[in-house]
Amino acid sequence: MDLAGAYTPPPDLAEFLAAGPPPVYIGFGSIVVDDPNALTNMIFEAVKKAGIRALVSKGWGGLGGDSLNIPEGVFMLGNCPHDWLFKKVSAVVHHGGAGTTAIGIALGKPTVVVPFFGDQPFWGSMVARAGAGPEPVAYKKLTADILAESIKTALTPEAQESGARIAAQIATEKGAATGAKSFHKSLDARALRCLVDQKRAAVWRVKRTEVRLSALAAATLVQEQMLEYTDLKLLVYTKILRWKLLMLK
Q: Which of 29, 64, 125, 188 pairs with 232 at a CA distance of 20 to 30 A?
């Protein structure tokens, strides 16, 4: 489904977007922090210091509690598809998840990454290396001043030009198709097929052998009393694929 094409913004969001220059998106998705109000106030202060308009996503972390005073030029955002929203903003600030990073970069938006864990520091470093944003600053080290300066860096002509250049390159690539082709090429299809009927996927393996059988083949052999289900072991494809991927390294 094309979420961007099917999405209709609520009137207050549409009004905010039309009321001034493109804002900066700030959101941390499913990240949950110990003190969401403190993070929200830090964001508000950074927005004031940077002198920008901003869309602040509440996310799972509960940013923007009802007790907080929302400054002028800030819109508290609920659920909204990124592939629609990011076309309307001047830059994006987020945690550096692979999916969010990919959408922002593909749409040519300079990116500020505030990593929390996992692969997020890596994606932040890749964005900075490409010139499409500042060096990532871990959440635990983040301050309003640092965030404000990072946003200002993302709004420089150099970062904007780098973001547009990378987006143009991505638009000419067939990344998903190439990745899928490479993945399928690495698989040994014979190991995933039924020995009796090559058109069917193997579901069972005869114990102490490499004989793999589809559900139909196994049921037929059991019905003909040539096998018992106790002779079979259910295949776990995640183990097979994991082993094959390790062999590729």
A: 188
65 residue type, one letter: G
Look up residue 19 and give its DSSP letter. Answer: T
Residue-wise DSSP of 119-157 = THHHHHHHHHHTTSSPPP--GGG--HHHHHHHHHHHTSH
C-alpha–C-alpha distance, residues 95 and 29, integer Å: 8
Does the pTM surpass 0.70? The reply is: yes
pLDDT along the chain (249 residues), means of 10: 73 95 92 84 95 88 66 91 95 94 95 94 95 95 96 96 93 82 77 88 92 93 94 73 47
Domain limits, the chain? 3-173, 182-248
Instruction: Report d(CA 77, CA 218) in Å as an integer.
Output: 54
How many angstroms from the chain centroid is the CA of residue 160? 21
Q: How many angstroms separate the CA atoms of 54 and 68, rounded?
A: 16
DSSP 29-59: TT---S-HHHHHHHHHHHHHHHT--EEEE-T
CATH topology of domain 3-173: Rossmann fold (3.40.50)
